[in-house]
Fold this sequence. Notes:
Number of strands: 19
Structural class: alpha/beta
Largest sheet: 6 strands, parallel
Amino acid sequence: MTLRTLDHLGEIAGHRVFVRVDFNVPLSGGAVADDMRIRGTVPTLRELIDRGASLVLASHLGRPRGQVDENLRLTSVGARLAELLVQPVTVLAATTPEALPDDPVVLLENLRFDPGEEANDPAFAGRLADLADAYVDDAFGAAHRAHASVSALPELMLASGRPAVAGRLLEREVDVLSRLLHDPESPYVAILGGAKVSDKLATINALVERVDALLIGGAMAFTFIAADGGAVGDSLVEDDRFDEVHVATARASDRGVTIVLPTDVVAAQEVSAAVPTRTVAADEVPDGWKGLDIGPRTVEAFASVIAGAKTILWNGPMGVFEKQPFAAGTSGVAEAVGSSEGFSVVGGGDSLLAIRRAGLEAAFDHLSTGGGASLEFLEGRALPGVTVLEGPS
């Protein structure tokens, strides 16, 4: 895959560039609680500024569903961006203002305040197109959405002879994930966690065709265990997915792919930091108890497989890591991946949060901002925000 990038943008000094960024970040007490996605796009913004362009930035935040939500305004996001850029950022109160101020960096209001964004409305995209001379997409986290600022807008820009290219963050994401999709070095180990196996069945089926081992933790593991007849107590199980799980495991067996499931789990009667816990066999969870983290023997087994990997993909926590009694499994996997000599790629908000809490960000080769976009890319699906930026090879 060949993308048009900032290198194909041409002369932009004195021109206005529309930059689709992904500032969909958590807020706490009116301030940005995690600025990873904002920091990730700073190299692109700084490069454009240094080349003499003025910027119109646009992002969504949360799910206001086409209505103005005072709690989802981008004011605090703009304030944090100004600190990172070390220059003023003008935050507007509208998504498509009638006139833009002549300021070097302008941040539009939350795109999803307008229903035209999620509807991929050409009229809304046209109003956005009127704001700039060129388009840059640096929002990989939104690249799988056929929304106006991601799909219709760059199409309009290109149709009118104006450039539409990928920013450095999006370019890097596509380069790294393409390596995992098309040319991973073996042994290739994927680690998947999270709550519902239904959310990741498509990913599992795609990875089974490429990986050498698949390590499955989190609540989603209990659907696999229960499908094989294990007793999982009151753990989360999607029994309507048993047939699909059997198909996936059979395909893995046919291809010689090792699927490693938890052998022990940390269980409790409810999700709370103040309840008694016990470590039990993963297929012998007592009635009334829930498995809420992988146990120490499972961490050791996962770490052993990870240590021999040349390529590692990790997406999803191993348990309810936000609660201290159930955090050891996720932190153990983070340490194992971080200390591995393999090429490591981590995605998903919870996995990234766990890594930051452990102070291990520098130990990983690539921290993907994509979440769902990363998984869809690795499933081999076309992402609207990427395909529109493809150029001749």
